[in-house]
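Quick one, C-alpha cells below:
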C-alpha cells in the first residue's frame, strides 16, 4: 500500500476495546488486503476504512465495514458475533473476497 489509509472507527459501545480494534484493523490491512489494495489504488486517491460497531441488547455485536479504494467501495456487514477479533477478521475476509472478483 503506497497511501496511508484513513481509518475511522465508530465504536462508542466498546471504549475499552478501541486500541485492540485498531490493531486488528491494521493487521488486516497490512496482511490480508495489502496486495488487493495495491491493485485497486489510484494516484492521489485515498484509501479509507470505516468501521461501525453497535452492541445489541443481548450483548452481541453488529458491525459494518466499508473500504474505499480508488473509485470503488466494498462493504460487509455482520451481526451476532461474541468475539470481536473473529468478527473483524471475518469482515475483512469478505471484503478481500469482493476485491478478488
Amino acid at each position: 500500500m503506497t497511501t496511508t489509509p484513513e481509518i475511522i472507527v465508530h465504536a462508542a459501545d466498546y471504549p475499552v476495546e478501541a486500541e485492540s480494534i485498531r490493531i486488528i484493523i491494521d493487521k488486516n490491512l497490512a496482511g490480508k488486503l495489502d496486495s488487493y489494495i495495491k491493485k485497486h489504488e489510484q494516484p492521489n486517491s485515498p484509501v479509507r476504512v470505516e468501521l461501525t460497531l453497535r452492541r445489541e441488547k443481548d450483548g452481541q455485536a453488529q458491525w459494518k465495514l466499508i473500504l474505499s479504494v480508488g473509485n470503488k467501495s466494498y462493504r460487509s456487514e455482520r451481526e451476532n458475533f461474541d468475539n470481536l477479533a473473529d468478527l473483524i477478521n471475518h469482515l475483512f475476509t469478505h471484503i478481500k473476497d469482493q476485491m478478488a472478483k
